[in-house]
Design goal:
- This protein has 13 helices and 19 strands.
- It has 470 residues and is an alpha/beta fold.
- The protein has a 6-stranded parallel beta sheet, with helices on both faces. A 5-stranded mixed barrel has the order 15-16-17-19-18.
- Bound molecules: 5'-deoxyadenosine and iron/sulfur cluster.
- Iron/sulfur cluster binds next to helix 6.
């Protein structure tokens, strides 16, 4: 059955904001200025969700702190992509026993992808009695109402039922920075790669309307943001659910047409849906960064098939070639999983050779982590953790060598960068990014933050470039 795109009515969001206002009035009566802490794990989408949580909390009158002992409300926004992230969350939530003892009125909420899994919600219910509120990504839009129930009834609330997800516009946002902004253009994923938990916890692909995305981009530009990253689990399939004749490349064009000096970035792209039209649009839109994060996951056709990725090595390489032909300065980054069930020496050698062939500017490498309920978790896996670690180390070494070589090739060149923050160090006190997203450390006046500058690259290492303003 076709998925029907569900929209949360604007009145519903207004109702949530009215709840925020009534909580704010109550807290004001009590005198003290309440504090909240939002702790975020995982991907940029989660960072963007946390900006909504902070938006609501700010409307409730909360200030923000990073000190868990000072916080009246703690929200832990979790990730489920790998076991490691889940273990960190559970460890850190467990440690909140101390803060709750010191401050018994403290409210602890755990939300996000991890608790959208039934077994995890159960685990928290049984083993973490200090947690007052649990809600999945689909309930984020009604966080105020959930929190109010905890406050008024003093009982634990669990809201993470199975759900395909909806689109909610108009949730207040409190962004972290003043230079770079996340802009969600779609939610969910339909791909069901066999290792991945995301489609189960974030629901089906659903796009925001182009006019809503463009309006938000306009607001960001007007507010002075210079670097806008369009976010989605699979941005290349933007618009497919809308039937309004606007695809992802069209959306980039529409945002590129907004007057002003700013950069458009996006992530993540799926090689299955990356089109020539997208590459041409990237090449032709002046404001679109020449950076493509195109996760390949494996260089072995056999493993790509088992992963349900819908492309093979040859097609991936052909896409890279096309994109580079159109944008010779293109920065290409990727994600790779090592140790997928049954991955042999030969399969892994194919991954190494693909990386040598493409020469990625940066690679994000992960050891496969079985996820409850995914097909890969049921596949035979005769290899040990030690085998996988050996491959992981070899791949990391290759990735670092290539990044180092690519960075060294920038030395002596002059590039335009966007200065985005301070490093806290004396010698290279500013950080900046090239159009392709490479990190450049600089020395200069902090007043440059939020401005573009021309920089001569003087040295480099595996992770960063070092430059002088010209
Ligand atoms: N184990 C290891 N890595 C994973 N990723 C997604 N699911 C898993 C898993 N079960 C990686 C993929 C993806 C990135 C965000 O996380 O490489 O692109
Ligand atoms: Fe997971 Fe694949 Fe969807 Fe990415 S495209 S979120 S790896 S299922």
């Amino acid at each position: 059955m076709a998925y029907i795109r569900k929209v949360i009515a604007p009145e519903e969001i207004r109702r949530q904001e009215a709840i925020c206002a009534s909580i704010a009035a109550r807290l004001r009566e009590q005198g003290a200025r309440p504090l909240a802490m939002v702790d975020t794990y995982g991907c940029q989408q989660n960072e963007a969700d946390s900006e909504k949580l902070r938006g609501y909390l700010a409307e409730m009158g909360y200030g923000f702190t990073n000190d868990e002992f000072a916080a009246d409300v703690i929200v832990v926004n979790t990730c489920a992509v790998r076991e490691h992230a889940e273990m960190r969350v559970l460890g850190n939530v467990g440690a909140l026993n101390h803060t709750k003892k010191a401050r018994p009125s403290q409210i602890i909420a755990v939300c996000g992808c991890m608790v959208q899994q039934e077994h995890m919600a159960e685990k928290i219910k049984k083993s973490y009695p200090i947690v007052d509120l649990v809600f999945g990504p689909h309930e984020l839009w009604r966080f105020p109402e959930l929190l109010e129930t905890v406050m008024e009834k003093g009982k634990r609330v669990f809201a993470a039922d199975k759900n395909d997800g909806a689109v909610a516009e108009g949730i207040p946002l409190r962004r972290d920075g003043k230079v770079k902004a996340w802009l969600s253009i779609m939610y969910g994923c339909n791909n069901f790669c066999t290792y991945c938990i995301v489609p189960y916890v974030r629901g089906r692909e659903r796009s925001r309307l182009p006019e809503d995305v463009v309006a938000e981009a306009r607001e960001l530009v007007a507010a002075g943001y210079k670097d806008i990253t369009l976010l989605g689990q699979n941005v290349n399939s933007y618009g497919k659910d809308l039937d309004c004749g606007v695809d992802f490349a069209d959306l980039i064009r529409m945002i590129d047409a907004i007057p002003g000096e700013f950069l458009i970035r996006f992530m993540t792209s799926h090689p299955r849906d990356a089109t020539d039209k997208l590459f041409e649009t990237m090449a032709n839109c002046r404001k679109c960064a020449h950076h493509l994060h195109l996760p390949v996951q494996s260089g072995s056709d056999r493993i790509l098939k088992l992963m349900n990725r819908h492309y093979d090595r040859a097609r991936y390489l052909a896409e890279i070639e096309k994109a580079r032909a159109l944008m010779p300065d293109l920065v290409i980054t990727t994600d790779i999983i090592v140790g997928f069930p049954g991955e042999t020496e030969e399969d892994f050698a194919e991954t190494l050779s693909l990386c040598e062939e493409v020469r990625f500017d940066a690679m994000f490498t992960f050891i496969y982590s079985p996820r409850v309920g995914t097909p890969a978790a049921k596949m035979d896996d005769p290899y040990t953790r030690a085998d996988k670690q050996k491959h992981f180390d070899a791949l990391t070494e290759l990735a670092n060598r290539i990044s180092g070589e690519k960075h060294a090739a920038y030395e002596g060149r002059t590039l335009r960068v966007l200065v985005d923050g301070e490093t806290g160090r004396e010698e290279y006190n500013l950080s900046s990014r090239t159009n392709g997203g490479r990190l450049v450390h600089l020395h200069g006046d902090p007043a440059l933050i939020g401005h573009f500058a021309d920089v001569k690259i003087v040295s480099s290492n595996t992770w960063a470039l070092y430059g002088e303003i010209v």
